[in-house]
Protein backbone atom coordinates (compact mmCIF):
# COMPACT_ATOMS: atom_id res chain seq x y z
CA UNK A 1 0.00 0.00 0.00
CA UNK A 2 1.20 3.52 -0.62
CA UNK A 3 0.94 6.30 1.96
CA UNK A 4 1.37 9.99 1.35
CA UNK A 5 2.82 12.15 4.08
CA UNK A 6 2.22 15.87 3.69
CA UNK A 7 4.70 18.00 5.54
CA UNK A 8 3.80 21.14 7.39
CA UNK A 9 5.28 23.17 4.51
CA UNK A 10 2.92 21.27 2.08
CA UNK A 11 5.72 19.14 0.62
CA UNK A 12 4.27 15.69 -0.12
CA UNK A 13 6.13 12.38 0.07
CA UNK A 14 4.55 9.16 -1.13
CA UNK A 15 6.13 5.96 0.10
CA UNK A 16 5.36 2.30 -0.19
CA UNK A 17 4.39 0.58 3.05
CA UNK A 18 4.50 -3.06 4.06
CA UNK A 19 1.24 -4.65 5.04
CA UNK A 20 1.05 -4.84 8.83
CA UNK A 21 3.63 -2.13 9.55
CA UNK A 22 2.52 0.96 11.41
CA UNK A 23 2.37 4.31 9.67
CA UNK A 24 5.05 5.54 12.10
CA UNK A 25 7.42 2.69 11.22
CA UNK A 26 6.82 3.28 7.52
CA UNK A 27 7.81 6.94 7.88
CA UNK A 28 10.98 6.04 9.78
CA UNK A 29 11.88 3.34 7.27
CA UNK A 30 11.70 5.84 4.42
CA UNK A 31 13.38 8.69 6.25
CA UNK A 32 10.28 10.86 6.26
CA UNK A 33 11.21 13.62 8.65
CA UNK A 34 8.49 15.14 10.75
CA UNK A 35 7.80 11.93 12.61
CA UNK A 36 10.10 11.13 15.50
CA UNK A 37 8.66 7.95 16.99
CA UNK A 38 10.94 8.10 20.01
CA UNK A 39 9.40 5.16 21.85
CA UNK A 40 9.50 2.86 18.84
CA UNK A 41 5.75 2.43 18.66
CA UNK A 42 4.91 1.67 22.26
CA UNK A 43 2.33 4.43 22.51
CA UNK A 44 4.22 6.22 25.26
CA UNK A 45 6.08 9.11 23.62
CA UNK A 46 3.51 11.02 21.51
CA UNK A 47 6.19 12.06 18.97
CA UNK A 48 4.48 10.31 16.06
CA UNK A 49 1.50 12.65 15.90
CA UNK A 50 -0.27 12.98 12.54
CA UNK A 51 -3.47 14.50 11.23
CA UNK A 52 -5.48 11.99 9.23
CA UNK A 53 -6.90 13.35 5.99
CA UNK A 54 -10.68 13.72 6.32
CA UNK A 55 -11.35 11.22 3.53
CA UNK A 56 -9.58 8.53 5.52
CA UNK A 57 -10.85 9.20 9.01
CA UNK A 58 -13.48 6.48 8.84
CA UNK A 59 -10.97 3.87 7.70
CA UNK A 60 -8.07 4.14 10.12
CA UNK A 61 -9.89 2.75 13.13
CA UNK A 62 -10.63 4.41 16.43
CA UNK A 63 -8.42 6.05 19.03
CA UNK A 64 -7.53 3.70 21.88
CA UNK A 65 -7.73 4.78 25.54
CA UNK A 66 -3.94 5.04 26.01
CA UNK A 67 -3.62 6.86 22.72
CA UNK A 68 -6.36 9.29 23.67
CA UNK A 69 -4.54 10.16 26.88
CA UNK A 70 -1.23 10.66 25.08
CA UNK A 71 -2.81 12.83 22.42
CA UNK A 72 -3.57 15.31 25.17
CA UNK A 73 0.17 15.90 25.46
CA UNK A 74 1.23 16.30 21.82
CA UNK A 75 3.54 19.23 21.02
CA UNK A 76 1.36 20.66 18.24
CA UNK A 77 -2.34 21.33 18.59
CA UNK A 78 -4.58 18.31 18.96
CA UNK A 79 -7.35 18.34 16.37
CA UNK A 80 -10.34 16.01 15.93
CA UNK A 81 -8.36 14.10 13.28
CA UNK A 82 -5.22 13.74 15.40
CA UNK A 83 -3.77 10.25 15.76
CA UNK A 84 -0.57 8.62 16.89
CA UNK A 85 0.80 7.10 13.71
CA UNK A 86 2.30 4.12 15.55
CA UNK A 87 -1.26 3.06 16.31
CA UNK A 88 -2.31 3.07 12.65
CA UNK A 89 -1.69 -0.32 11.11
CA UNK A 90 -1.30 -0.32 7.35
CA UNK A 91 -3.40 -2.75 5.35
CA UNK A 92 -4.40 -2.92 1.68
CA UNK A 93 -7.60 -1.11 2.65
CA UNK A 94 -5.47 1.92 3.50
CA UNK A 95 -3.75 2.08 0.11
CA UNK A 96 -3.56 5.77 -0.77
CA UNK A 97 -3.82 6.97 2.83
CA UNK A 98 -2.95 10.63 3.34
CA UNK A 99 -1.43 11.80 6.64
CA UNK A 100 -0.50 15.39 7.41
CA UNK A 101 2.43 16.14 9.66
CA UNK A 102 2.18 18.63 12.49
CA UNK A 103 4.53 21.57 12.81
CA UNK A 104 6.56 19.86 15.50
CA UNK A 105 6.68 16.66 17.56
CA UNK A 106 8.52 17.90 20.64
FE1 LIG B 1 5.85 6.67 20.53
FE2 LIG B 1 3.95 6.48 18.67
S1 LIG B 1 6.06 6.13 18.46
S2 LIG B 1 3.74 6.99 20.74
TrEMBL record:
The keyword Iron applies. Belongs to the adrenodoxin/putidaredoxin family. Coiled coil: none annotated. Its cofactor is [2Fe-2S] cluster. GO terms for cellular component: cytosol. Residues 1-105 form the 2Fe-2S ferredoxin-type domain. CDD domains: fer2. One of its GO terms (molecular function) is metal ion binding. InterPro entries: 2Fe-2S_ferredoxin-like_sf, 2Fe-2S_ferredoxin-type, Adrenodoxin-like, Beta-grasp_dom_sf. This is Ferredoxin. The lineage of its organism: Bacteria, Pseudomonadati, Pseudomonadota, Alphaproteobacteria, Hyphomicrobiales. Keywords: 2Fe-2S, Iron, Iron-sulfur, Metal-binding. GO terms for biological process: P450-containing electron transport chain. It holds the Pfam family Fer2.
Amino acid sequence: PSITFIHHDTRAETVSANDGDSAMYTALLHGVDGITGECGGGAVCATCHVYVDDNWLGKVGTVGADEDELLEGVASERLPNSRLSCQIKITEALDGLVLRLPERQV
